[in-house]
Amino acid sequence: MSSDFQTLIVERDGGVVTVTMNRPERKNAANGTMWRELLAVFDDVAAERADRVMVLTGAGGAFCSGADLSDPSDVAGRPGDPYLVQMRALADVALRLHRFPKPTVAKVGGVAAGAGMSMAIGCDLVVASESARFSQIFAKRGLSVDFGASWLLPRLIGLHRAKELAFFADILSASEAAEFGLVNRVVPDHDLDAFVDGWAARLAEGPTLALSMTKSMLNNSMAVSMEQALEDEARAQAANFGTRDTREALTAFVEKRTPQFEGR
Length: 264
Description:
This protein is an alpha/beta fold. It contains 10 helices and 9 strands.
């Protein structure tokens, strides 16, 4: 696909794809163009076998301040679409991120608000700098939560805390977000890049197919019975035993060396 994006910077290095939202003058607020470009990138990276991990971040000291409401005709979808159509286009992006078959890491420096916060917590792992700030800002804009927040928040932090964040739309510091259970790690600002690079490199060296199936089962865990979860695990392991990566891991174990996974 073309790398000539208006709102994104896409960089590839050693199986790690870093997608940087690049509208720093708007604190990376997402307009219709950005949502369409994110959808295209998610599809491209999901399909490219050489891409094994995706890091999502923002330029200019912010993650994403949410949807750009300065042009109500271009919130998402195509300019001028009815609002329901535009919001369904936004939902497509959220669902692509949720179903993304490879590990995703949100690298959050600065503000992550509204759909930007929902996007961050929609990733598999969230690493925040000490100066990061989080807010489900919707209520202060006269809006309901979106980009999957109504589904994500109760599962991450419980129903009552989810309502607290959604009703009051308070701004959380990185440490408060960690106390709520919204982020995995809070690191000093100057360590953010190095820490995420380390995690992404470890994930890129992992067994891609096994991690993909583990991610899918964990995502579905609250919607299935124990019996179904065990059946899903059995099917996943049966598939794993037919892969080169599992054979390599077993050989490496016998030979007392580190396995070299290929993602197949």
